Target: ABC transporter, ATP-binding protein
Amino acid sequence: QGAAVTAAAHSSEVVPQKALIQLEGVTKVFETEEVETHALSDVHLSVKPGEWLSIVGPSGSGKTTLLAVLGLLDTASRGTYLLDGKSVLDLSPTERALVRNRHIGFIFQSFNLIGDLSVYENVELPLTYRGMPADERKARVEKALERVGMSHRARHMPGQLSGGQQQRVAVARAVAGDPLILLADEPTGNLDSKNGESVMQLVSELHQGGATLIMVTHDPAQARLGTRTVSLFDGRVVQDERLR
Ligand code: ADP
Model:
């Protein structure tokens, strides 16, 4: 028994925490009639569960492209991407959509709620796409709306809500399916400072609850809320700094 205890203690020391995201040599080239743009060049990135990455860099440095590749909205031209240990760059479009829907939550600058669906229906839609039974959908939607403090607005339409409230609903939609990773593109870019702070408070709570977050931001103060800052320039990672 002593040996087993020792082995267990030993293994917890030496087994490295598995990466949730592993990018190796990821390159994305956009080819238009006259020019070839290397939006991403040889990007290597490893993200562990529970990390909160801030992706920073000047306009045109590749932040949006990186988020699109990570979110399986776009594919890389070269390189490998392992999500939870599984290769996801060589999937068919249908398989890619399934993985995206199941494992990735998105929060966009412009909220991207569907205007003619209620708050409740917006949060429910990705779960319906997944084929989740109605009773489980209901439980998850209610829990997610409660988590973001929007239960009392479930029957409202997005147009009846403030920007801050719409972003809270978008956060509920992103987390309702328990995704492996949450991707946020300038989540407070369309909000005034008060609503922006309240949405960032919500994001902090998700982080404290164990979420793995990758957030593009222009705001240096916001970037420092994360656990790590990855700086891009000309499609390359030029700095990768652990903050805590
Ligand atoms: P950022 O989000 O940091 O502003 P982007 O990822 O949007 O940067 O863009 C990186 C580079 O790729 C830029 O030079 C941009 O013009 C180019 N780019 C992005 N998307 C496309 C596209 N669909 N077609 C052609 N070039 C693109």
Notes: Residues 1-8 have pLDDT under 50 and may be disordered. Strands lie at 21-31, 36-47, 52-56, 78-83, 86-87, 104-107, 181-185, 213-216, 228-233, 236-242.
